Amino acid sequence: MNLKDRLLKLLNTGSVRSVKAKKNIIASFGIKGVSIFIGFIFVPLLINYLGTFEYGIWITLGSIVGWINYFDIGLGNGLRNKFAEALAKGDNKLARIYVSTTYAALSMIFGAFFVIFLVVNPFLNWAAILNGPETMRSELSILVMITVGFFLLRFIFRMIAIIITADQRPAVSNTFDPISNIVALSAILILMKTTDPSLINLGIVLGGAPVLVLFIASLYFFKNDYREFKPILSLVNFKYFKDLAGLGIQFFIIQITVVVIMSTNNLIITQVVGPEAVTAYNVAYKYFGLITMLFVIITNTYWSAFTEAYVKKDFLWIKRVMRGMIKLWIGIIMIIVIMLAISGPFFSIWIGDKVKVPFMLSAFTALFVVVYLWYSIFIYFINGTGKIKLQLYTAVTVAIFNIPLSIFLAKNMGMGAAGVILGSCITYLPGAILGPIQYFKLVNGKATGIWGK
Questions:
Q1: 7 is a domain residue
Q2: Which residues contact 58 (CB under 8 A, 6 or more apart)?
C-alpha cells in the first residue's frame, strides 16, 4: 500500500462524524495556509504603505472596532449551538426559525447601534483616543465611521459562515477570509500604485472586501445548499429569541471578558508605551499566533461535532478526540520553543530593521500561546455542550484584574509591551486549570452543581 492509499485509508477510517471532521481539518489547513501567507504579506506591505506610526494607529483602531463583535449579545454562538442541536434532532423547521430570528434580531440591534454611533461620533476625539496628532482628528473620525459601518454589515452577513460551521463544514466557511484577503490585497496594491498613503482608503478596502465576499456567499448558499434554511420574515419568532439569547448572553459576557483580556492590550500599549510599540507587539503576536490559528482550526472544527456527540451521549468518541488533542498540544510546545529560538533572525528577514521586537516580548508571547492552547482544548468542548456558567464566572472574575495587572507590569515594573502579554498569560491560568476539571466531570457523568450548568 503506497503512501497515498495509507493517507486515504486513515482519512476515511472512523465514524461518520470523525471522517467529516478529519476532511474538514485537512481542507481548513490548506485554506488557512493561504490566509496566513497573505497575512504575512500584509504586515510589511501596510507598514511600507502607511509607516510604523500610522500602522500602529490602524491596528489599535481595529482592536477597538473589534469590540463591536460582542454587541450581538452572543447571538452568533447561540445560533451555532442551537442550529447544530436542531440538525442533530432532525428538526429543520426549528433550525430555519433560529436562522430567521437571528438575522432579524441582529439587523435591529446593529441598525440601532449605528444610528447611535452616528450621533455620538462627532463628539469623540479619536486623535486623543488613538494617541495620534490633533491634525488627524477629522481624518480619524471619518475613518472610524467607515470602519464601523462596514464592520456591522460584515457581522450580519457573517451568519452564513456560522450556519455552515454549525453544519460541521468549517472548511467551507474558512474560505471566506482568504478570498476577502485576496480581494483586499489586490485593491491595496492598486492603491499603492495610484494614490498617496491614506488611512481612509485603507479603511474602505479592508472593510469593504469581506462585506462584498460574505454578501455574495449568502446569496449563493441560501439559493443552493441551505435553501431550506433561508431566513424569511414569516418565520421570525421572538419567542425563540429566549433560546438563542439565553445561551447567547452567557457567551456574550464571556466574549466581553475576551475583549478586556486581549483587545485592550493594543490600547494599553499605545497609552503606556506608544503606537510604535503596538507594531512590535503585533509582529510578535502574528508570528506566534500562527500556531494558534492552526490549532484553532482543529478545535473550531470539533465545536459543533462536540454538540452533536454530547446530545447523542457519544462520550467514547469525545474522550478519544480529546486525548488526541492533548497529545498534539504536547508536540506543539516543542515547535514553539524552536520558533522562539529563531524569532530574531526570522523578524530580520520578514520585517527588516523597521521594527525591533525585544526577546522578552517574544518569550512571553510564546508562553501565552502555550497557556491559551491548553485552555482552548477544553473550552471549545465546553462551549459545544453549552455548559458555560463556570467559564462565565471565571472569565468575569479574572477580567476585572486584567487591565490593572497589565498596566502594573507594563508601567510600574518597566516591562513595556512584554508586561501586557504576561498579564494575559496570568489571566488565562484559572480557566486553564478549571477547564480540564469540568471536562472530566461532564464526560464521566459527575458534573453536578455549577460544573453542569
A1: no
A2: 46, 50, 199, 202
